[in-house]
Specification:
The chain has about 500 residues and is α/β, with parallel strands linked by helices. Among the domains are: about 260 residues, 3-Layer(aba) Sandwich (Rossmann fold); about 100 residues, no CATH class. The strands form four sheets. A six-stranded mixed β-sheet has the order 2-1-3-7-9-10, with helices on both faces. Helix 7 runs antiparallel to helix 8, helix 10 runs parallel beside helix 12 and helix 11 crosses helix 12. The longest helix is centred in the C-terminal third of the chain and has 42 residues. It is elongated. The termini are far apart.
Length: about 500
């Protein structure tokens, strides 16, 4: 009974796995750069790795073969056919040299011999052989060729010729660059260059075609032919019109490498560029060349403003205005400097988007940079206020922590005047008079002996005729007409103070 249950479980698992197995995607990736007898290349190995990584992310089972000779290339094809049969889609990618000999397209392994036409044919593999092998694996075949790179037989390639010279019949018959396929039944062919033209190996780490193919293959919402249209236009733009990929398709049904979704602005522009007429392309290329700028922004202006409906003169004037505006904006961005790496990164990405004609994306990135700068500015403002208050508090605490000087009264003299006391103090050698208290019997009001010094609470002086000043007669406000005798502490002698008659205004001030 347990054994029966196990068998049922295994059968159910197989039944569930069968649709997934039938829908799998497979890919065979070739690269050839270390050629023995012809011009070597520098990027095919990195291109193959880049494309393989992109394919694996999309669910392809990838097999990579680098720098294989003819025998090993054919063995890899046989293994691919034996191991991957039953797939839904089979893709073969080749990066290296390719030629067209008498109307037949051929791929060059690393041991391709160019000493004679017969040796060249014997040491290369026909493109039809590749397509036939892939057709036995899946009903839909994709063949992507980043070949025909930098004429393998051209002048200046002596370092890649080894000891074998180029045969005269090869020079007369073999043409660098592929010819048209003519019939692509159940297959799609994507060539890195137009028929009869060579493709660039690239000045950077990857060729223009492979870099564009790897980056755009996963574009959401696009069928494979539309993806290759994007690749075509991006390579055309990146090469300033010198290289235009070529596609021939006979696929029996649609194939989406990625899930459906909204198309980004850049990809919409590339699709629209494919519909531009050759005459308008030439016009855009001329204006861009004169301004020293990329093609993308001008194509964006051409399509967004519907310049195609204008006359040739009006369109050229509008394109020149758009070119001047782009150059000014680009130069302004280059002049800007930012200490914040986030702002610098956003501005750099905005400049790249602007160069590609993705104006909305560039504006969004610049808005993000402004948001970061504004947030930093607000933070600095709040920090300035906090620091200012903190400094003020620190100063106040520091003042309170200072030692206080004791008030040392070396001498104090008191004089009783009309029921009050006047003291004379000497502090640090400086003589000073002050009123301690003057409480008159009438009303008990405190009154200062010095009219120019207010009493606590800001009470007014008793002088009515000239507040704040001592009267010329020398009388004091509130002082009786006959002052008492003044006694000296340091002797028994007594003396009378001179009698002074008070001023009439002072008498009027007394209660």
């Amino acid at each position: 009974m347990i054994a029966l249950i196990r068998i049922v479980v295994v059968l159910m698992a197989l039944a569930g796995a069968w649709p997934a197995l039938a829908a799998k995607r497979v890919a065979l990736v070739f690269s050839a750069q270390k050629y023995e007898f012809i011009r070597p290349l520098k990027n095919p190995g990195r291109d193959a790795a880049l494309v393989a990584e992109a394919l694996e992310k999309l669910g392809f089972a990838v097999t990579i073969e680098n720098d294989r000779d003819l025998r090993r290339m054919r063995r890899a094809l046989d293994d691919f056919r034996a191991d991957r049969t039953g797939a839904e889609v089979a893709l073969v990618y080749f990066a290296g040299h390719g030629v067209e000999i008498s109307g037949e397209n051929r791929l060059l392994p690393v041991n391709a011999d160019s000493s004679s036409l017969a040796a060249l044919k014997a040491s290369t593999i026909a493109l039809d052989e590749i397509r036939a092998a892939a057709a036995t694996i899946a009903p839909s075949v994709l063949i992507v060729l980043d070949a025909c790179r930098d004429d393998p037989f051209g002048a200046g390639a002596a370092e890649g010729r080894s000891a074998k010279a180029l045969g005269a019949d090869v020079q007369a018959t073999a043409n660098p660059g592929f010819g048209r396929v003519g019939r692509a039944e159940n297959a799609l062919f994507a060539f890195a260059a137009a028929p009869g033209a060579t493709a660039s190996d690239g000045d950077g780490a990857n060729s223009p075609f492979s870099a564009a193919f790897a980056s755009l293959l996963a574009t959401d919402g696009l069928e494979i032919r539309s993806v290759l249209t994007l690749v075509q236009q991006q390579v055309y733009e990146a090469s300033d019109g010198r290289q235009l990929p070529y596609v021939e398709s006979g696929l029996p049904k649609l194939f989406f490498a990625a899930e459906t979704g909204d198309l980004p602005e850049r990809e919409r522009l590339l699709l629209a560029m494919a519909d531009v007429t050759p005459d308008m392309r030439a016009e855009v290329e001329r204006v861009a060349g004169d301004a020293g700028m990329p093609l993308g922004p001008l194509y964006g202006a051409l399509i967004a403003a519907d310049l195609q409906s204008l006359t040739a003169d009006e369109r050229r004037a509008r394109l020149e205005d758009a070119a001047a505006a782009f150059v000014k904006t680009r130069d302004d961005l280059r002049k800007l400097a930012a200490d914040d790496p986030r702002v610098a990164d956003l501005r750099g990405r905005a400049a790249q988007a602007l160069a590609l004609g993705a104006f909305d994306e560039a504006r969004g990135l610049l808005r993000s940079a402004f948001t970061v700068d504004d947030a930093s500015r607000q933070a600095l403002k709040a920090n300035f206020v906090d620091r200012t208050l903190s400094a003020a508090n620190t100063r106040a605490v520091s003042a309170g922590a200072a030692p206080r000087r004791a008030r040392l009264f070396r001498r104090r003299r008191r004089i009783r005047v009309g029921g009050g006391i006047v003291s004379r103090d000497r502090i640090g050698g400086a003589r000073r008079k002050r009123s301690l208290a003057l409480d008159l019997a009438a009303g008990g009001t405190r009154r200062s002996l010095y009219p120019d010094r207010p009493v606590g609470g800001g009470a007014a002086n008793l002088r009515s005729d000239a507040p704040g000043r001592r009267h010329p007669s020398g009388c004091l406000a509130g002082r009786p007409a006959v002052p008492p005798r003044r006694r000296r502490r340091f002797g028994a002698a007594r003396r009378r103070l001179p009698r002074r008659r008070p001023h009439q205004g002072c008498l009027g001030a007394l209660p």
